[in-house]
Amino acid sequence: MPFIEFERVSFTYPESPRPALNAVSLTIDKGEYVAVVGANGSGKSSLLRLLNGLRLPGSGELRIAGLATSDEVGRMAARAAVGLVFQSPSDQIVSSSVEEDVAFGPENLGLPRQEIAARVERALTAVGLWGERRRASHFLSEGQQQRLAVAGVLALDVHCVAFDEATAMLDPEARLKVLDLMDGLVAAGTAVVHVTHDMSEASRASRVVVLDRGAVVFDGSPDALFSASRDDGSAPAIHALGLPDCVALAVALGLDPRCGESAAAIAARIVARRGTGTATGAAVQPVAAPGTASIDPVFELKGASHSYLRGTVNETESLRAVDLRVGRAEVVAFVGRTGSGKSTALQLLDGLVAPSSGAVLAFGSDLGSPRADLRSVRMRAPLAIQRPESALFERYSGDDVAFGPRNIGLAGKDLVERVRSSMEETGLGYAEFRDRRTRSLSGGEKRRLALAGVLAMGGDALLLDEPTSGLDPATKRSILALVVGRSMQGTTVVMATHSMEEAAKADQVAVFADGGIVAIGDPRTIFYDRFDPSWGLRRPFACEVAIEFEARGISLRQRPLGLDGLVAALAETP
Amino acid sequence: MAMKSNVRKIVVTGALGALSIALFLTPFGYIPWLAGASLTVMHIPAIIGAVLEGPVVGTIVGGIFGISALVKAATSPQGPIDVFFVNPLISVLPRLLVGLAAWAVFKAFHGKLTTVAAATAGVVGSLTNSVLVLGSLVVFGAIPAAVAGAVFVANGLIEAVLAAVLTLGVVVAWKGIESRSGKARLAKEDK
Amino acid sequence: MKGIEFFRNVSIGQYWPGSSYVHRLTPATKYLWLVALMVAGIAATSYTAALLPLAVALAIGATAKIRPGFLLRGIKPLIPLLALTALLQALFSWPGDSSAVLVALGPFAFTAREARLVLMTFARTLSLMTVVGLFTSVTSEGETVHGIEDVLAPFAKLGLHPQRLALAVGIALRFVPIIAGELESIAKAQASRGADFGSGRGGPIAKARAYLPLFVPVTVRALERAELLAEAMEARGYTEEGRTRLVSYPRQRGEGFVRLAAVAACAASFAASYAIHHFALL
User: Fold this and answer.
1) Please, what is the angle between helix A412-425 and helix A397-408, to 10°?
2) Which residue from C2, C6, C234 is facing A309, i.e. has the nearest CB?
3) Can you give the pLDDT of all 574 residues of chain A as single tens digits?
4) Torsion-angle region of residue A169: left (phi > 0), alpha (psi -120 to 50) or beta?
5) Using the 8-state DSSP alphabet, how is residue A396 labeled?
6) Sheet of strand A365-366, all strands in order from the earlier edge strand to the far edge
7) Are the C-beta atoms of residues C140 and C187 closer than 8 Å to each other?
8) Partners of chain A (3+ Cβ pairs below 8 A)
9) Which of the residues A162, A532, B161, C41 has an alpha carbon 20 to 30 A from that of A17?
10) Looking at CA atoms only, how far is residue C46 from chain B in angstroms?
11) What DSSP line would sit under chain C, residue for residue?
12) Residue B26 · residue C214 · CB < 8 Å
């Protein structure tokens, strides 16, 4: 008997006209590792909520360990058997104390104290947080908080843990830890269901289920999925999914794709296929175009330091003597671990925070001087905070975008035109979205709307703090294209990002570590020449592969930063 | 699902209580007004809790705010009047009634004219806060009645207007109430 | 240069960790003493009765190894306040105040009654401040939250739900840093779009509307978080019947007497006031 069995299950949310799930039939066995993918609105989240018994099927039957969830006993069994981990780490934590938060589940079960303590210990140890048990939960990093959420679920001794896009908001290091945790769970016999947008993550599972508008359109191994997505006969929903880098590269080169293949392995295969060939001498280094930074920088940090809670007992230094010059129309990427100072540096640039020492210059004026017009600097170089959709406040979308331009003084036709062009630029049709209520927008749409609001300031510069985090791959690409497009038109862009592929598109990359800039230069210099693993970053996949080639005696004429560049460089190299 | 509404009320109480405390502890809760005195907004989450979730939530959020004001006054007092808030009859009791009063007013509209009801609840809740806090300060001899009256006129009435606008803003946004035209204000400039 | 600063580390009380007998008492007992002394302080009608809680709090603090200076640090801001209050009282007169005038300067008269009012207020405030300060010094956050449940447990039969209340308060405390951080983020985001909270032009309605871009999003976000957390709690099987609790507070020896002593102290304060009034002492 399968552990989880969906039998023609349909489900509709009360406020919604269309069913979220439409006669879905699916089984999951104990210890399976299943990834569930699909576009927004495909029904992935509903599936998980039904699994845990949070919601009940409208029709059809869901059986967990043989018991139907429509029955109260079955529902309790579902809750005891399946645990859910949600997307937002901090919005799952109940208590200020790590220990007590994990105890929440067992407490609900009415277990005796000793049993609860034992379970808390097992769960925290399993996720690697036993050492943090006495800390306040809000002092944990987001990655740690997410692992705490997993511990909270494990303490219920569940047989299956379902993750609802639980890695979306995490930085790469934290994401990897959670993924490793999932591997550990499967190895220990606990089933894992992982809803995700990221195809590399999905390919770690042994089975992928693709949902489209409430129906299952694919159910098989990741390898089979990626062949299907190259098959023109497959459903469009399958084509719409991206491919993991290793698969995309293999496909582009006519090789058999293998999921989860490392850069070294795929480089070895490519080399084997072409034969080692003669090294053609040193690769041609492209001459780095001289930046405009030295002439007339738009932003300048001179020995700028910053600390939180200055003068109190909790004072902590966030930035130490940072020097930086950003030239006009340059795109500068800030990379580094969470907490390394990227956000603070961004906020210094347009005067949103003041340095505790050193100087900040923007548009030629010293922001520390009493005559500095901070308000106009902030409007000329608007900052899009992490998750700018938190700042949406107007009832209707069009009005929210109009807020900024109105403050500049635009009105009437000019205002409408500015709003229209900003919205269209971010992919939100003006006619369709102007009168939509902001709260009714999806997550991705809200993010686009918030960016439109920032773009609508018509500033000479844009400061973006992780503009694509948590978004699906297609939206990520379109926002990046938008940003690059803007810089071609003369806007200076400074953006903090966790995606090395995005950073590779910048003119300059500044690497932050422990509150200081440890390296700064063009992407090739940073990712090839000066790269240091202690930064806690990884190189873009194309760079990793190219470096593996060098180790095997093949030098590419152009050092690539992206997959297209890699494929082209390979074609040119004899 | 009866269980669900209980959990939700508990958590909403906690979240709005936290909002009150955060507004209270950071400068973001104070709007500069006449030289020195600021308008405060930390009582407004209690009003919002009452309007959106009922009297119990509103009362407890008010209580949470009042008690945090009390504790802060006892452990790190700052302003002149701050210190008197160690007396729970001045800091806590009035705030318990803020939510209750706001809810009573909102309920009186019987579910109609939500926008007007919300704004009125804001006004009444805020006035309750001003009158009871100032009143209890007078009763306990902290400030003379004439001063209380002056503060009420200078601050209390304005705060009531502020509360109306903010309560309305949140209720409209949260409940997804359409405007009369169903269109963005921008539509007016878009002929 | 004015920036917008970080407030993620906001906190309310000032817990002073220790292992004295006082620290080890159950939260319920600590709450009982808190209420007893506060009631005594509020209802006091004589200086002695008003200062009794102060003395008792200092004594308890001493056994808990808390320096009196720490508990009394509120005196400094009180003194200028005292002067200000006296001044205000002198400026205005209470109707029916026929007590002796102590100081007169032109039209301003400071009467004995006003003097007594100011001194009583001072004594009472100082007392309450010390009592609350003591409580927060010996009670950790966890104890404060769980204590609500414990101390109100007897009232559950009257329809109160102590568990729910304690949970709500615990959640509030846990959300404070997050919401404070969000206030700051949103303020920055809106400042970038030209928002101008509060300062400058306009009457009350204009000022209120200028504040909407900060207040509405932070409140809506708080409500959204609440819904997410409620869902997560339900997913972890939250139920109200039959819940147990990991953290327990064992009773110390003699705790029963300590609790009785709290009631006695409160009663003594009332008795003192009564005696003083009846026998016309100060």
Assistant:
1) 120
2) C6
3) 789 999 999 999 887 888 899 999 999 999 999 999 988 778 898 999 999 889 899 899 999 988 888 888 888 889 889 999 999 999 999 999 999 999 999 999 999 999 999 999 999 999 999 999 988 898 899 899 999 999 999 999 999 999 999 998 888 889 999 999 999 999 999 999 999 989 999 999 999 999 998 999 999 999 888 888 777 777 787 877 888 888 888 888 888 888 888 888 888 888 888 765 544 444 445 555 545 555 688 999 999 999 877 666 667 888 999 999 999 999 999 999 888 899 999 999 989 999 989 999 999 899 988 888 888 899 999 999 998 889 899 999 999 999 999 999 999 999 999 999 999 999 899 999 999 999 888 888 999 999 999 999 999 999 999 999 888 888 888 899 999 999 999 999 999 999 999 999 999 999 999 889 999 999 999 999 999 988 888 899 999 999 998 888 888 888 899 888 898 888 887 6
4) alpha
5) B
6) A316-326, A299-308, A357-362, A365-366
7) no
8) B, C
9) A162
10) 14
11) -------TT---S------SHHHHS-HHHHHHHHHHHHHHHHH--SHHHHHHHHHHHHHHHHHTT--HHHHTTTHHHHHHHHHHHHHHHHHS--TT--SPEEEEETTEEEEHHHHHHHHHHHHHHHHHHHHHHHHHHH--HHHHHHHHHHHHGGGGGGT--HHHHHHHHHHHHHHHHHHHHHHHHHHHHHHHTT---SSSS--HHHHHHHHHHHHHHHHHHHHHHHHHHHHHHHHTT--STT---S---PPPTTHHHHHHHHHHHHHHHHHHHHHHHHTT--
12) no
Chain A contact for B2, CB < 8 A?
no
Bridge partners of A382?
none
Token representation of residue A39? 């576009």
- Report the alpha-carbon angle A402-A404-A410, nearest 5: 70
- Residue B110 Cα distances to B51, B119, B122, angstroms: 12, 14, 16
Nearest CB to B189 within list A396, A412, A438: A412
For residue C17 the two structure tokens come to 């960790």
Sequence-ordered list of residues with C-beta below 8 angstroms from that of B189, at least 6 positions apart, any chain: A411, A412, A413, A415, A416
Question: What letter does residue B27 receive in the DSSP assignment?
Answer: G
Does C121 contact chain B (CB < 8 Å)?
A: yes
> How far is CA C66 from its chain centroid?
19
Q: Is C174 on the interface with A (CB under 8 A)?
A: yes
Calculate how close chain C gets to A133, using CA atoms only, in Å: 13
Can you read off the two tokens belonging to residue A428?
């939100």
Does C100 contact chain B (CB < 8 Å)?
no
